[in-house]
Write a structure and sequence with these properties.
Length: 179
């Protein structure tokens, strides 16, 4: 009975403490400099760009320019560009292999070589658009992926970090968070 009384006292004290009460914030955020009018450009499974795997460098660039031109025409001021769809990269990386959604083969760079992220940043800025890089930090492989997994892919270099056959990386794992 003594333990029960102590437990109830502890619970009632915690519930009545100032930390457990809510009050509106007195902090007034600064006024925004401008509206954020953006479009998402998804690259996983070739949802938005590139329209299909294996396009030439010139075709990929032309498609991206068309997306950026349309964003500028619509008076958007930002693009949110998916650069890391599934532990792969739409940019040159020493950590992740090239995305198969560019060439059709995971780990294979575009030929002739270019860095799609650097190109997107340059072209977006020429149109007065911000470019925000969108990283998917947990998905190790998308179900639409068909090419063999390269030796540099995290599912091969760190198989203990996989939560499932393709699915998501273990986001609670300290090593995953540091990666």
């Amino acid at each position: 009975m003594k333990n029960l009384s102590a437990t109830l006292l502890l619970i009632s004290t915690a519930c009545l403490s100032p930390a457990a009460t809510y009050g509106p914030s007195k902090v007034i955020p600064p006024k925004p400099v401008s509206e954020f009018r953006a479009a998402w450009v998804a690259t996983v499974a070739n949802i938005d760009w590139p329209s299909k795997k294996g396009l030439s460098t010139a075709e990929q660039k032309a498609e991206l320019i068309a997306i950026l031109d349309r964003a500028a025409q619509l008076k958007l001021n930002a693009i949110i560009f998916q650069v890391r769809p599934a532990c792969d990269a739409m940019y040159q990386s020493s950590l992740e292999p090239w995305s198969e959604y560019l060439t059709g083969v995971e780990g294979q760079p575009p030929a002739p070589f270019y860095d799609p992220l650097a190109f997107a940043i340059e072209e977006a800025h020429q149109r007065g658009l911000e470019l925000h890089a969108w990283f998917n930090p947990y998905r190790a492989r998308h179900l639409s992926a068909k090419s063999p997994i390269p030796a540099s892919h995290i599912s091969k270099t760190r198989p203990q970090r996989r939560a499932g056959l393709f699915t998501e990386r273990r986001h609670g794992c300290r090593q995953t968070l540091r990666h």
